[in-house]
Each structure stands twice: as structure tokens, then as C-alpha cells.
């Protein structure tokens, strides 16, 4: 019997940190990584091992997940770019006055 073959995979590692003016002390950062979020119908082309797409980082702001491409994927699937998208939800209070001080940095 031949040994089991591991599916192709990508390690996804990210670190989160928040700083700025007017922060109310320690804040929590919730993360939800989605694969093929806008793909209509059909099965996903990739998935996170252990179902880990959502994460609430603890004391360490660094998190690592493994993204798996079942059945080896197609050549098109293996060459698709990774896209970073941030949806910022504002809570500006009753006076609707916001004091943004947001800086995003991404490295690949």
C-alpha cells in the first residue's frame, strides 16, 4: 500500500497590530479569511485545514493557517493572484464625527 499523498497546500501567515489616537485601551481584532468568497454556486476550489478561516488572535498577533487545494486544483486555480481586501466598519457615534487614523500595510 502506498503512503497517503498530501494535497497541494499554501501556508498563510499574518500578523495583526492596532495602534492610533483615541483608542479606548486594548482592542480585540476579529479575523475572517474567506476563500472564493464571491464564487457563485459549486464547490470551493480551496479550503482551510481544520475549517480555520475565522480566528480571534490571542496574546500573539501572529496566526498561521494552511490553505489546501483539493484534487490538485486546475492550472488556472494555481496561478490566480491573492487579493487583499479590507472592509472597515465605522462607529462614529451619535454625532457622526469620525477621527480616522488608519494605516494598512501588506507584504507578500
TrEMBL record:
GO terms for cellular component: membrane. Its main location: membrane. GO terms for biological process: integrin-mediated signaling pathway. Keywords: Glycoprotein, Integrin, Membrane. The keyword Isomerase does not apply. Pfam families: Integrin_A_Ig_1. Gene3D superfamilies: Integrin domains. Chain A, domain 2. It is found in: Membrane. It is a single-pass type I membrane protein. Residues 10-88 form the Integrin alpha first immunoglubulin-like domain. This is Integrin alpha-5-like. It comes from Pipra filicauda.
Amino acid at each position: 500500500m502506498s503512503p497517503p499523498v498530501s494535497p497541494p497546500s499554501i501556508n498563510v501567515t499574518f500578523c495583526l497590530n492596532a495602534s492610533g489616537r483615541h483608542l479606548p485601551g486594548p482592542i480585540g481584532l476579529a479575523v475572517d479569511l474567506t476563500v472564493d468568497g464571491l464564487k457563485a454556486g459549486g464547490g470551493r476550489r480551496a479550503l482551510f485545514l481544520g475549517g480555520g478561516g475565522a480566528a480571534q488572535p490571542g496574546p500573539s498577533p501572529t496566526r498561521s493557517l494552511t490553505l489546501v487545494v483539493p484534487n490538485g486544483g486546475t492550472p488556472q486555480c494555481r496561478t490566480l493572484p491573492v487579493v487583499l481586501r479590507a472592509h472597515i466598519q465605522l462607529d462614529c457615534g451619535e454625532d457622526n464625527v469620525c477621527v480616522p487614523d488608519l494605516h494598512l500595510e501588506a507584504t507578500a
